């Protein structure tokens, strides 16, 4: 895949093409564009749907996960189970020990509870810096973002240009709602995290994730002690990516 003269226009064209396709067709089209295509999975239910399609159709897409060091045991077990079921390899990208030590020295191991700054710093060293390594050399980044996950994801396109990382970002499940995802999982015997059945629709690091209450949005259990309804870890926020890039 060559670098487009106008990557934003290329993304808009791809966005329009993907809108009229089903999931398998979307992934096949993206996989055939050339270059290194990377899918980052958090092992959540929507990500498991994408992994199932990649594995079942033997698509040339690298599947990677950010093994932050603070994941639930159930998530870690699901990584192994998923690899076995689909005969694929999920590459693990971990934080650097030096970064963990530096964070603990400045904020304390669990300092993310004390301030938004400290929480962003933790996400930065455990997620954003490993993500930068995972996407090194990639031309396309596939995610499990959906419009129904939260209000600040309501306008998620099928394809967009990530100017900070200089690649196309593809969100093939942008228009899928949770009921469709659950039906796909049931119909195709897709392994999912048992925490979903315990009230965790969105699962991140164990210290930063709780079950949601009836009527709460899907991502209400993430960093629940913060008041900002649009809180994110930074993986899908442009200014956070820029900050991390400057630290490389």
- Separate helix tally: 8
Q: Considering the protein shown, what is the CATH homologous superfamily? A: HUPs
Name of the level-1 CATH class: Alpha Beta
Spatial sequence of strands, sheet with the most strands: 3-2-1-4-6-5
Largest sheet composition: 6 strands, mixed
Strand percentage lies at 5-15%
Tell me, rounded to a whole number, the average pLDDT: 89
Q: Could you tell me the radius of gyration in angstroms?
A: 17 Å
The unreliable regions are 230-234, 236-248
| Topology pattern, helix = H, strand = E | HHEHEHEHHEEEHH
Number of strands: 6
CATH architecture: 3-Layer(aba) Sandwich
CATH topology: Rossmann fold
Give the overall shape: globular
The structural class is alpha/beta
Terminal-residue CA separation: 25 Å
- Helical coverage, percent range: 25-40%
Brief descriptors of the model:
single chain, 248 residues, alpha/beta, Rossmann fold, 6 strands, 40% helix, disordered C terminus, APS_reductase, iron-sulfur
Describe this structure in words.
It is found in: Cytoplasm. [4Fe-4S] cluster binds at residues 122-123, 205, 208. It comes from Rhizobium tibeticum. Mean pLDDT is 89; it is low at 230-234 and 236-248. The chain has 8 helices and 6 strands. Strand 2 (62-66), helix 4 and strand 3 (90-93) form a beta-alpha-beta unit. Helix 6 packs across helix 8 (238-247). The chain has 248 residues and is an alpha/beta fold. The protein has a single domain, classed as Rossmann fold (3-Layer(aba) Sandwich). 40% of the residues lie in helices and 11% in strands.
């Amino acid at each position: 895949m060559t670098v487009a003269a106008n990557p934003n226009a290329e993304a808009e064209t791809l966005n329009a093409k993907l809108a009229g396709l089903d999931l398998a067709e979307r992934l096949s089209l993206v996989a055939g564009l050339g270059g290194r295509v990377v899918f980052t999975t958090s092992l959540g239910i929507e990500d498991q749907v994408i992994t199932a399609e990649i594995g079942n159709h033997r698509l040339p897409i690298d599947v990677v996960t950010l093994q932050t060091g603070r994941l639930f045991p159930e998530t870690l077990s699901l990584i192994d189970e998923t690899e076995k079921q689909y005969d694929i390899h999920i590459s693990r990208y971990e934080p650097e020990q030096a970064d963990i030590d530096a964070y603990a020295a400045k904020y304390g191991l669990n300092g993310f509870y004390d301030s938004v700054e400290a929480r962003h710093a933790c996400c930065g060293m455990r997620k954003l810096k490993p993500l930068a390594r995972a996407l090194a050399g990639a031309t396309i980044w596939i995610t499990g973002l959906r419009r129904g996950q939260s209000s600040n994801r309501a306008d998620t396109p099928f394809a967009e240009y990530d100017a900070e990382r200089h690649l196309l970002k593809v969100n093939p499940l942008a228009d899928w709602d949770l009921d469709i995802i659950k039906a796909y999982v049931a119909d195709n015997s897709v392994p999912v995290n048992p925490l979903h059945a315990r009230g965790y629709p969105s699962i991140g690091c164990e210290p930063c994730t709780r079950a949601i209450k009836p009527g709460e949005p899907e991502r209400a259990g993430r960093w629940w002690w913060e008041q900002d309804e649009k809180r994110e870890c930074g993986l899908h926020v442009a200014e956070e990516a820029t900050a991390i890039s400057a630290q490389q």
